[in-house]
Specification:
The chain is α+β, with helices and mostly antiparallel strands. The protein folds into 3 domains: 7-132, Electron Transport, Fmn-binding Protein, Chain A (Pnp Oxidase, Chain A, Roll); 145-318, 2-Layer Sandwich (Beta-Lactamase); 341-444, Orthogonal Bundle (Arc Repressor Mutant, subunit A), CATH 1.10.10. Helices cover 29% and strands 28% of the residues. The chain has helices spanning 55-62, 93-108, 145-157, 162-175, 216-224, 241-248, 298-318, 362-378, 385-390, 401-417; strands at 19-24, 30-35, 38-42, 45-50, 65-71, 78-89, 119-132, 182-187, 194-200, 210-211, 228-230, 270-278, 281-290, 341-346, 351-354, 357-360, 382-384, 421-425, 430-435, 439-444. The protein is elongated, with a radius of gyration of 26 Å. This is Pyridoxamine 5'-phosphate oxidase.
Length: 446
């Protein structure tokens, strides 16, 4: 019989069936307790949730050896882990991943507000014993993830610009990975906030919606630079209406006019967020959710983590497009038909309103205001990405991919909200402003 590996037992580490841990005190007196979460760290280590100072906790501090009984939720197999306690982590990626997972388990068990993670106790796995082999066949995977990953990576490698890369990603996640509810968010300068550049499977795209680091599954994954996965619905990590209702009742209610709602399911039972990292720098977050409990397991996390790594490389590769050697003139005849569109700009946050309807703010807002200003001065409609990147008026953050991502955001937002204004590609590394009516620009006071 081949030796059992910890990686092969990950389905038993989802918390679906509670595990038991046995420890001994300094005098050798044993104690057995039920534990909420045994978490896979790597092929040689697990972490166990530390929620309160129990007999188990007291025992391992004086006698660092323990055994844990795992039960597979589908095959009914049982395995015993022989462990040696190493350390306790009370912050960082591992702690936050376990905290989110535990919140889902607690909600599923009707113990929300009772389970509270104090630390992640890390153990080295010394040996694995098979107590009872499989009694039932393992279920077939819902999606052939390796084939889906291979197909998706090939399609992403063929993308010629950031816009087509993102569109391809959304299509592949729905078609190949069978994940119909997904979002891609990009990171602002210094990781101070995340903004939505694409989504799939929601009534409203939510393009331009923002999340702060630490807020929900997405924000925690961004702050800790680590995957965060929840298998059961929990109020601790919900987005959307609850946040807006709280804001509406606060002194900050006036800010709602410039807040774009984040898209999301009415009942999100499973969530997963993967950071896009390039040499330790956070580029963004890939997020998926499902109304089905337990939709995302360790295998989905592995596949999406590989995808996120390739996606980060592709974003960097496709950012900063080379301009065409001979760009077109890029001017248009003044529009003299129709009433002027009244467009207001607020310099405090670069928010732009068209006919009193909020459109966009931040860097994307400053880009739109610059384009409109150049048109108003001389009828100019075409611009190079290079000149936008270098413009002091836009105050673009340090990293170049921020421009391409914001141009995509701005184009989509205009398509959704402004039928008289559009932003088109005018060739490689160039954009074209398209207006259907004259414009009246107003620099408004705060």
């Amino acid at each position: 019989m081949s030796e059992v590996t910890l990686t092969a037992l990950r389905a038993s580490l989802e918390g679906t069936i509670p595990s038991e841990i046995a420890t001994c005190d300094a005098d050798g007196i044993p104690n057995v307790s039920v534990i909420s979460d045994v978490h896979y760290v790597d092929a040689e280590h697990v972490a166990i949730s530390y929620q309160f100072f129990s007999k188990t906790r007291a025992n391992i501090l004086v006698n660092p050896r323990a055994t844990v009984l795992l039960k597979h939720p589908q095959t009914c197999a049982q395995h015993r882990l022989h462990l040696h306690y190493l350390r306790t982590e009370s912050e960082g990626g591992l702690f936050e991943a376990m905290k989110a997972k535990l919140a889902g388990i607690a909600s599923h068990e009707g113990m929300a507000g009772v389970f509270r993670l104090l630390g992640a106790d890390v153990y080295k796995v010394i040996r694995i014993d098979t107590v009872r082999p499989d009694q039932l066949p393992a279920p077939l995977p819902r999606t052939p993830l390796l084939a889906a990953l291979r197909q998706t990576l090939a399609r992403l490698a063929a993308a010629r610009d950031l816009d087509s890369l993102i569109a391809c990603l959304m299509e592949q996640l729905a078609a190949e990975f069978q994940m119909p509810h997904v979002m891609l968010l990009m990171s602002d300068a210094g990781g101070e906030r995340l903004y939505t550049v694409a989504s799939h499977g929601y009534p409203e795209s939510g393009v331009g919606a923002e999340i702060l680091p630490g807020q929900g599954v997405i924000g925690v994954a961004a702050r800790e630079r680590t995957p965060i996965r929840i298998a059961h619905a929990t109020r601790d990590y919900l987005y959307g209406r609850a946040i807006r209702d709280a804001l509406r009742a606060s002194p900050l209610a006036h800010r709602l006019e410039t807040e774009i709602p984040l898209p999301g399911l009415g009942h999100s039972a499973s969530q997963i967020a993967l950071p896009l990292l390039q040499e330790g720098r956070l580029l963004g977050i890939l997020y998926a959710e499902s109304p089905e409990e337990g939709r995302f397991g360790y295998d989905e996390e592995d596949a999406l983590a590989i995808l996120a790594g390739h996606l980060a490389e592709a974003i960097c590769r496709l950012s900063g497009e080379t301009e065409e050697a001979t760009p077109p003139a890029g001017t248009a005849r003044p529009l003299d038909s129709g009433a002027p569109l009244v467009i207001r700009h607020y310099a405090a946050d670069d928010s732009v309103f068209v006919e009193d309807e909020y459109v966009i703010k931040g860097v994307a807002g400053s880009i739109l205001w610059l384009l409109l200003g150049e048109y108003a001065k001389g009828g100019r409609t075409e611009f190079s990405n290079k000149e936008l990147r270098l413009s002091p008026q836009i105050r673009l953050p340090e990293f170049s991919e921020n421009l391409e991502a914001r141009l995509i955001l701005l184009r989509k937002r205009l398509a959704e909200r402004c039928r008289h204004i559009a932003l088109d590609k005018a060739g490689r590394g160039r954009v074209r402003l398209v207006l259907a009516r004259p414009v009246q620009l107003i620099e408004a006071e705060a």
